[in-house]
Amino acid sequence: MKVKIDEKYKWDFSDYFSSEKEWETCLKDYKKKIEEMSQFVGKLNDMSTILLCFKRMEELSVMSESLATYAFCLRDLDVTNAHQAGLVNKIENALTYHAEQTSFIEPEISSLDNEFLQKLASDYAFSPYKRLLSEIIREKEHILPEAQERLLSGISSFSEDFANNHSNFENGDLKFNRVKSKSGVLRKMDLQTAAIFLKGSDRPLRENTFKELQGAYGRFNTFLSSNYLAEVKKNVFFTKVRHFDSSLEKAFFYENVPSIIYKKLINNVENNLSLD
Q: Quick check: helix, strand or coil at residue 198?
């Protein structure tokens, strides 16, 4: 059942696009600018060309963020709306195209000498891209040849299906029964109110909320376990392709955090658990 919401409480998309038509126009412009990136193929070996390429990439990043924010927020208003889901599919396809058409950049730049890349990073003109250059240097051994990077870019449209499927499930398919409070009142429950109930002072309400959550999710155990297993398989695949020893190492590498911190945290928690 849809709930009518006063306009003043709805998201204001006007800072992004005034209409869906304007969004569609920007999407076409975005795709055109992606195509123009081909001018840099095989030419990223001097300071001025690399700087211009980075600036063009930055422009594309701003455009993609605005396009994606608009589409995803519209979709989130009602995940069952097929038309709004279609806008998300359009931007996801465009983002995949973006990744494919620019997949040559990191392999080309990573093939350059570290001394030259460090020189770029220390140049004032490259100050907005210092972090980017530092990360390329750090990730060199995990950056693949251009053909392989392009191939991996092409699967980006479905490599995030775990998160998308889970989000659609929670916001579209997952339903809860009303839960009884201490006073005997049946309270309407969704994921947002459940979080409030679980932190409240009403103990029977907390207990009933917990049981309802477990029961609701439990009715979808097959889907949840299959979806999770698919994510594990994906992570194992990328771990091997990117030449990491484990998925844990890969995850922390891209956060630039030593995995030993996580391992020590787990050990400290386990060593200090009390069953009393």
A: helix
- CA 182 to chain centroid, in Å, comes to 40
Tens of pLDDT, residue by residue over 22-58, are 999 999 999 999 999 999 999 999 999 999 999 999 9
| Cβ-contact 181, 204 below 8 angstroms | yes
Angle at 79 between CA 77 and CA 82, to 5 degrees: 110
Cβ atoms of 155 and 233 closer than 8 Å = no
Strand duo 179-180 + 186-187: pairing = antiparallel
Which DSSP letter does residue 219 get? T
Query: Per the confidence metrics, is the pTM higher than 0.70?
Result: yes
Token duo for residue 235: 């992570």
Write a three-state SS string for 43-105: CCCCHHHHHHHHHHHHHHHHHHHHHHHHHHHHHHHCCCCHHHHHHHHHHHHHHHHHHHHCCCH
Number of neighbours of residue 176 by Cβ within 10 angstroms: 16
Per-residue model confidence as pLDDT tens digits over 204-246: 999 999 999 999 999 999 999 999 999 999 999 999 999 999 9
49: Cβ contacts below 8 Å, ≥ 6 apart: 40, 43
